[in-house]
Amino acid sequence: MKLPLATIINLAFRIIAAFAYIFLGVYIGFFAEYFLGSWFGVPITLYLGILFILYGLFRCWRAYAYYQELNEDEYGQYDA
Q1: How far is CA 25 from the centre of its chain?
Q2: According to the model, what pLDDT value does residue 75 have?
Q3: What is the model's pLDDT at position 80?
Q4: Is 79 helix (H, G, I), strand (E, B) or coil?
Q5: HEC per residue, 4-73
Q6: Are 30 and 49 in contact (CB under 8 A)?
Q7: CA 30 to CA 53: how far, in whole Å?
Q8: Higher per-residue confidence, 3 vs 53
Q9: What is the mean pLDDT of residues 48-58?
């Protein structure tokens, strides 16, 4: 199935945003040098980084689900 250009751009932006969140999480969680305190002995920046990484993985999954939805035969068809 050939996808329209708008759909390819939409899917590309979804994937780029997902990877941006993942890389932001890696940077905040493991490479940032500021300290926001700690919670149970673990720096809060690590928790925040893990949260961003999980959200980026969720966005990857949503992009995959969007792509799978485009491949369905009934996409855009409504029952009367």
Answers
A1: 11
A2: 56
A3: 60
A4: coil
A5: CHHHHHHHHHHHHHHHHHHHHHHHHHHHCCCCCCEECCEEHHHHHHHHHHHHHHHHHHHHHHHHHHHCCC
A6: yes
A7: 11
A8: 53
A9: 97
CB-based contacts of 75, cutoff 8 Å, min separation 6: 69
Whether the CB-CB separation of 64 and 38 falls below 8 Å is answered with no
Name the token pair of 43: 């720096």
For residues 47 and 70, what is the distance between their CA atoms, to the nearest angstrom?
Answer: 35
Task: Let me know: does 38 contact 80? Beta carbons within 8 Å.
Answer: no
Dihedral angle, C-alpha 17, 31, 45, 42, nearest 10 °:
140
Q: How confident is the model at residue 69 (pLDDT cuts 50, 70, 90)?
A: confident
Task: Give the number of residues written for the chain.
Answer: 80
What does the alpha-carbon distance between residue 33 and residue 43 come to, in Å, rounded to a whole number?
Answer: 11
